[in-house]
Amino acid sequence: MKIDEFYRGTANLNLNGSIAALVPAIIIAVGNLYYFQNNQIMFLTIPFVIYSFISFQLYLFRMKQSISIGHNLSPSNSLYRNIFEARHLVVVYMNYQDSSLYFFFPDGHQAGILKKYRQKEHLLLKKPRIYILYNCQNQAIGFFKINHLKIEVYDQHRKYVGCFETEKRSWWKKKKEMLDESGQYIGSVEGSTTFMDERVLNQSREQVGRLRRGWMPVEWSGRFPEANTPVLSLSESLSEKDKLLRMSFLVNEYFIER
Questions:
Q1: Which side of the chain, N or C, has fewer Cβ within a 10 Å radius?
Q2: CA-to-CA separations, 151 to 104, 123, 174, 238, in angstroms, rounded
C-alpha cells in the first residue's frame, strides 16, 4: 500500500460515516411525516445532517489529498526492503474501531503496521494486551505484550529481547527505561509534556531515536501533505533487534498514554 491509497481509504471511511448519519435522519423524517406530523420533531434530524455534511466534506478533502499525492509518487517499487532499513519513518495514527499505527517510508510506500492482536476474551481471566508489528508483506516481525507497567518485547520467533518499563515519579512525570533480555539497563525515553518530541537515549545518554511532530523535510511534502505528521528516526548503528526494542515506546505513546 502507498500513502495515496491510505488517504483514499480514510476518505471512504468518512463517506461511509456520512451515509450512515443520514439513515437515522431519514427514519425520523419519514416517521414524523406519516405518524407524528410534528414540526419540532424535525429538529432531531439536525445533528445527524450536520455530522453527515462534515463527514462528506472530509471525504472530499481526503480524496483531493489522495489524488494530489498520487501525482507525486513514483510508480516503481519502494527503495527500501524492510522497516528496519529506513533511517526515518512517517508515523500515522488511525483511531477507527481498532486503533492502529501505520508506518511509511519517505518514498510514500507502506513500511508496516502496529495493531492490537484480537484474543478470545475469558469471563474470569483477563488476558494481557498484545500488539503485533507487521512488515509491508503483512508478516509478523515483532510482538509487544503489556504487563502492568511493563511492555515485554519479542522478535518474530517469539524470543524475548527486552522490555520497556515506566515508573510514576509524580502526577505529571514518569520515568521510562528500557532493559535488554538479561534485565540490564540500555537506555531511557525523555520527552516534552507540551508537544510531541520523544527522545530515545542509550545508557550513555546519547540519542539513538526520536519521535517528533512538526519536523517534515520539504522534499517529502508532495507525498505527505500534513506537515505535523510525526516522524520516527532511529540510528543506523542499531541492529534490527535493538530497533524493535526501542520501538516499544510507541506502544506506550499511542496505545497506553493516549
A1: C
A2: 24, 24, 15, 20
pTM of the model: 0.86
Distance between CA 11 and CA 5 in Å, rounded? 10
Distance CA 25, CA 36 (A): 15
Q: Give CA 92 to chain center in angstroms.
A: 5
The H or E element that residue 24 is part of is helix 3-31
HSE-CB at 88 with a 13 A cutoff on CA atoms is 13
User: Cell 505484550, residue?
Assistant: 145
Band the pLDDT of 122: cuts 50, 70, 90. Answer: low
Whole-angstrom Cα distance, residue 15 to residue 48? 14
Measured CA distances, 80 to 2, 4, 86, 89 (Å): 13, 18, 7, 11
pLDDT in the model for residue 37: 78
Average pLDDT value for the chain:
89
Half-sphere exposure for 59 (CA within 13 Å, toward CB) = 14
**Residue 144: C-alpha distances to residues 71, 188, 215 (Å):** 37, 17, 27
Continuous segment of H or E residues that includes residue 189: strand 185-191
What is the rounded distance in angstroms from the CA atom of residue 205 to the CA atom of residue 178? 12
- DSSP assignment, residue 239? -
